[in-house]
């Protein structure tokens, strides 16, 4: 499908993640959650399912998932957690694993991650370590999870030392991205997920970024633009994951904005009242482009164009937009030192030569980073 096209909102699309014997489909469209039971029954006929979710999603979509599974003859156990990044922790992991063991979930059974990125990462990691591996299905209920975290097999939890530092690569058996459930998503959460959509255009699809500039309102309103945005994003990520499943090469490009963003999340204590993940990514992408421009790598107009679109879509593009600020330059540098892309202490960033021309920059000078942050963190929005 070309970037200028967008099929109707009711059309289901299927993206294949090609990983040999670990290949799986991403099914995208309104109502695909109602096929959960049939899909689970094909994977584990007559088996048991542990549905891991949070309190908010359980109230909005839990009955629909549960009814579909039970209608297909599956025994269902629900593990309902508190919403928020604080759940993605050692304590949260222990609670999920022990609940599944108590429910006698066997290796031939299934885990369903019903929720946003926190639930998907946590439930996926629990599935990876339960009885040394139980199959799982991702049912992402946020835009961010549909276009990013549910695809590619990154699972894990946070540590006091930083975000996503404990985990495993463990691929799901299926992803069901029901775009209809996004209709009730809070505005702020939807905007935060949209940052990850924009990211794919900024990495290597300048025509998709231009499409986003023209169609972002339709993505929010739930026209065919929403399915198109999710499908293009998933296809882009699937292609990268197929080439580089465990992030030893160009999969690192998917972390555009995340080195800055994860540091900001840590410095704000993962407090959703101040900053949520997608907002951190939005600021981080804008910083990556401003940093690239400061280094003479990227035209300043491209950096300004990125800022304009993020701001127009209701996302923050500057640290000054974070309530209470984000601490010191030294704090940012310390947080960045725990980034997963650090190699023998050397900083690695995803930088850009322009929109759609991102690249992996290794051994970035700490002096250059410090000089940029000292200027950028003082600048008004």
UniProtKB/TrEMBL annotation:
This is 3-dehydroquinate synthase. Binds 1 divalent metal cation per subunit. Can use either Co(2+) or Zn(2+). Residues 79-191 form the 3-dehydroquinate synthase N-terminal domain. Its EC number is 4.2.3.4. Its cofactor is NAD(+); Co(2+); Zn(2+). It catalyses: 7-phospho-2-dehydro-3-deoxy-D-arabino-heptonate = 3-dehydroquinate + phosphate. Belongs to the sugar phosphate cyclases superfamily. Dehydroquinate synthase family. The gene is aroB. Catalyzes the conversion of 3-deoxy-D-arabino-heptulosonate 7-phosphate (DAHP) to dehydroquinate (DHQ). Its main location: cytoplasm. One of its GO terms (molecular function) is 3-dehydroquinate synthase activity. InterPro entries: Dehydroquinate_synthase, DHQ_synth_AroB, DHQ_synth_fam, DHQS/DOIS_N, DHQS_C. CDD domains: DHQS (cd08195). NAD(+) binds at residues 117-121, 141-142, 154, 163. It is found in: Cytoplasm. It comes from Camelimonas abortus. Pathway: Metabolic intermediate biosynthesis; chorismate biosynthesis; chorismate from D-erythrose 4-phosphate and phosphoenolpyruvate: step 2/7.
């Amino acid at each position: 499908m070309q970037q200028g096209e967008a099929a109707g909102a009711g059309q289901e699309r299927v993206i294949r993640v090609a990983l040999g014997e670990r290949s799986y489909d991403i099914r995208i469209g309104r109502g695909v959650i109602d096929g959960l039971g049939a899909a689970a029954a094909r994977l584990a006929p007559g088996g048991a399912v542990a549905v891991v979710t949070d309190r908010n999603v359980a109230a909005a979509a839990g009955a629909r998932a549960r009814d579909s599974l039970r209608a297909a003859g599956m025994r269902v156990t629900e593990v309902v957690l508190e919403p928020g990044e604080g759940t993605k922790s050692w304590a949260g992991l222990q609670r999920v694993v022990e609940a599944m063991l108590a429910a006698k979930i066997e290796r031939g059974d299934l885990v369903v991650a019903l929720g946003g990125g926190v639930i998907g990462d946590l439930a996926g990691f629990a599935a990876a370590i339960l009885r040394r591996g139980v199959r799982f299905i991702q049912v992402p209920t946020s835009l961010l999870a549909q276009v990013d975290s549910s695809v590619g097999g990154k699972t894990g939890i946070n540590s006091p030392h930083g975000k996503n530092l404990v985990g495993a690569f463990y691929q799901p058996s299926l992803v069901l991205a029901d775009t209809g459930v996004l209709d009730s998503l809070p505005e702020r959460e939807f905007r935060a997920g949209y940052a990850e959509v924009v990211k794919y255009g900024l990495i290597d699809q300048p025509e998709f970024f231009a499409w986003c500039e023209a169609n972002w309102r339709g993505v929010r309103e739930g026209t065919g633009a929403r399915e198109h945005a999710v499908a293009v994003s998933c296809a882009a990520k699937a292609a990268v994951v197929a080439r580089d499943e465990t992030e030893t090469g160009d999969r690192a490009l998917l972390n555009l904005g995340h080195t800055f963003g994860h540091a900001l999340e840590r410095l704000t204590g993962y407090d959703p009242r101040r900053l949520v993940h997608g907002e951190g990514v939005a600021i981080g992408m804008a910083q990556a482009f401003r940093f690239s421009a400061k280094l003479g790598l990227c035209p300043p107009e491209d950096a300004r164009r990125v800022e304009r679109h993020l701001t127009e879509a209701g996302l923050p593009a500057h640290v000054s937009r974070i309530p209470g600020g984000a601490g010191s330059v030294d704090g940012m540098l310390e947080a960045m030192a725990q980034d997963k892309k650090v190699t023998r202490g050397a900083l690695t960033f995803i930088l850009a030569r322009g929109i759609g021309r991102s690249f992996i920059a290794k051994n970035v000078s700490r002096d250059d980073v410090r000089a940029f942050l000292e200027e950028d963190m003082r600048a008004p929005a």
